[in-house]
Amino acid sequence: MKQEELLSKIVDKIVLSDDMHVKWLNSLSMMENTGARKISKYEHPVYTSIIVLKHAAEEARHAWYLKKQIEKLAKNTCPDYSYPYLLAPLESYHYLQMLDVEACRYLKNKMGLEGRALKHGAYLLVTYAIEVRADMLYGIYQEALTKHASKVNVKSIILEEEGHLEEMQRMLEVFDPEWKELAADMCTIENKLFETWITAIDKTEISNQ
């Protein structure tokens, strides 16, 4: 089964179960928040561009927005990002952490980068790969929400993620003329981590049927 088909099948069933759905939203919120915190940590204390500030702010807003969506399904649930309130919590937490680690390892081996240059390159490649994934994931998720006439919607997130992807492409063009090769390699790395995550979600989803 193709990755898109598997995700569509999983999300379709999750949307039909409020208990699973709130944990799904909370898991996505946690991952968006993790991204926002990583960007803030990456920011230079002096030389920070408006694009980076915008990206950090929007990722944080996505985390908040997804949390607010939970209230449309159930009140007083998922108070935080503790394991009981997430789907596949271990894999959900490790996804971005490992993507960062793998990006740094890749850039050290491929380009010999270190220090601030390494952090900058990792930020660009990790963010690019995540935005490519977000475009696919949120698109499939919104299709399921529309199909089942859910009170939840993620259309505003989709629009902003599309903008992020365009911004990352422009920044990568400045970073390296061969950025497409670097980005493709990073997406291959991300794909393996995503497979691990969505497989874990699938097992959780099946166990709750």
What would you note in describing this structure?
- The chain has one domain.
- About 80% of the residues lie in helices and about 0% in strands.
- With about 210 residues, it is an all-alpha fold.
- The model has no long low-confidence stretch (mean pLDDT about 95).
- The two termini are about 20 Å apart.
- The longest helix has about 35 residues, at about 115-145.
- It is globular, with a radius of gyration of 17 Å.
Compose a concise summary of this entry.
This protein is mainly α and about 210 residues long. It has seven helices and no strands.
Radius of gyration, whole Å: 17 Å
The helix/strand class is: mainly alpha
Largest sheet: none
Number of domains: 1
Q: Total number of β-strand segments?
A: 0
Strand content: under 5%
Mean pLDDT: 93
Order of helices and strands: HHHHHHH
- Report how far apart the termini are: 20 Å
- Tally of helical runs: 7
Q: How would you sum up the global shape?
A: globular
In helices, the fraction of residues equals over 70%
Low-confidence stretches: none
How would you describe this structure in keywords?
209 residues; mainly alpha; 79% helix; 0% strand; globular
Helix and strand arrangement:
Blueprint: H1 3-15, H2 18-42, H3 50-70, H4 89-111, H5 115-147, H6 155-175, H7 179-207
Helix pairs in contact: 1-5, 1-7, 2-3, 2-4, 3-6, 4-5, 4-7, 5-6, 5-7
